[in-house]
Amino acid sequence: MKKDKGYVDSEYLRFVAKIVAKYKQRTYTLMHIELGHKVLDVGCGPGTDTIPIAQLTGATGQVVGVDYDEKMIAEADEQAEKADISQWVRHVHADASLLPFEPGYFDSVRSERLFQHLKDQDKAMTEMVRVTKSGGWVVALDTDWSTMSLDTTEINIEQRLKRFHTEHRFHNGFAGRQLYRLFKKRNLADISVEMAPILITNYAIAWQIAALHETEQAAITAGVITSDELDRLHKSLEQADADGVYFHCANQVIVAGRKN
Ligand SMILES: C[S@@+](CC[C@H](N)C(=O)[O-])C[C@H]1O[C@@H](n2cnc3c(N)ncnc32)[C@H](O)[C@@H]1O
After folding, report:
1. Which of 57, 126, 171, 190 is the residue whose CA sits 20 to 30 A from 3?
2. CA distance 12 to 38
3. Neighbours of 148 (CB within 10 A)
4. 66/124 Cα distance (integer angstroms)
5. Rounded to two decimals, what is the model's pTM?
6. Which long-range contacts (CB under 8 A, 24 or more apart) does 235-238 make?
7. Residue 1: is its pLDDT beyond 60?
8. Could you tell me if the CB of 45 is within 6 A of ligand 1?
């Protein structure tokens, strides 16, 4: 498929999954998954979460992943086959704004780092709530890319690059801060909000996770920073890395709520 804004491949998603493992676990807990439950993961990627969730529902349950990227769906199905769980785990090619399921079908529905890629967050949220049964849980985790913060002497350049990254790499780089409002507007009960910060003290890993390589060239083309400024920023960060003091953090937000 055509690479949309903010596209990431499955190798990247598996790498990030290790770094955010404890937050993934936390979303599973907030979903209150039990044996026999029907669970949906919207924007499932290559099955990073449907495969572990299958252990929580057991074979008497049903786990469904949805993604609009056919390649992700094929890979996710392959992973389910390999893990010998495809009798109760399946992956469906669909858009988050039009979920092909009956109202109230699932005991719980989750999304992770999906809303930052959406042009219409309201439609997806409405759909996630629609397919959740009354009393079931909806849980979303997303990044607020504007909270990305690097310890550098070149603060002015860092701030311009960060803002460009937030606004131009993603359809909705501010997604994390908006989840609370999306949940409140749906009149969900027992809403909880938790922060899920990411801290990285290695320059190469931080740049890879934030996918800043593509942004920096685009920022130069757009006239947001000059190549001299980019060199200065790189030098300051390389120095910090060499001195063992590289510091890079960003906030993610996890919101959970129960359908009335
Ligand atoms: C950052 S990845 C996260 C994947 C997975 N949730 C994880 O945690 O590894 C975002 C995923 O959302 C999918 N996606 C983006 N927009 C979508 C849409 N409108 N409908 C369904 N899936 C979408 C992408 O194809 C990608 O697999």
Report:
1. 126
2. 28
3. 23
4. 12
5. 0.96
6. 236/152, 236/153, 236/154, 237/150, 237/152, 237/203, 238/203
7. no
8. yes
14-47 tens-digit pLDDT: 999 999 999 999 999 999 999 999 999 999 999 9
Averaged pLDDT of the chain: 96
> Which amino acid makes up residue 243?
D
- Quick one: which atom of ligand 1 is closest to the CA of 24? 8
Residue 20 Cβ < 6 Å to ligand 1? no
Decide whether any atom of ligand 1 lies within 6 Å of the 48 Cβ. Answer: yes
The tokens for 245 are: 């003091």
Pair 1, 9: CB distance under 8 Å: no
Distance CA 51, CA 10 (A): 14
Domains in the chain with CATH codes: 10-258 (3.40.50.150)
Helix 70-82 to helix 10-19 angle, to the nearest 10 degrees? 60
